[in-house]
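Subject: sequence -> structure tokens, single chain

Hey, anyone have a minute? Need the predicted structure for the following. Not urgent.
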Amino acid sequence: MTYIVNDKCIKCKLMDCVEVCPVDCFYEGENMLAIKPDECIDCGVCEPECPVDAIEPDTNANTSKWVELNTKYSNLWPNITKKRLDDVPKDQEKWRGVENKIKYLSEKPGKGD
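Reply:
Had a minute. Here:
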């Protein structure tokens, strides 16, 4: 089992999860984070830290596409180990609760550490 980041993170990218990860398995895109499944130790400490419920176990229904996307982007994007308040999207609150945000996913990398 591993944890994944789903489309609820897109355009929210709050990074609370990054601070608690004991193995630094988060990777940063321009407007979303990803978890590298091969590095995740399944501890689950990140899941309750996400205020938009964007992190879930890969054993949940309909997560296989998110495992693939997290794997792909965690291999392309830079690692992130610290929350940067200056990079939290200023309009993130208006994106909370928006459904099917996959169409807004940017493949561009974030800054990383």
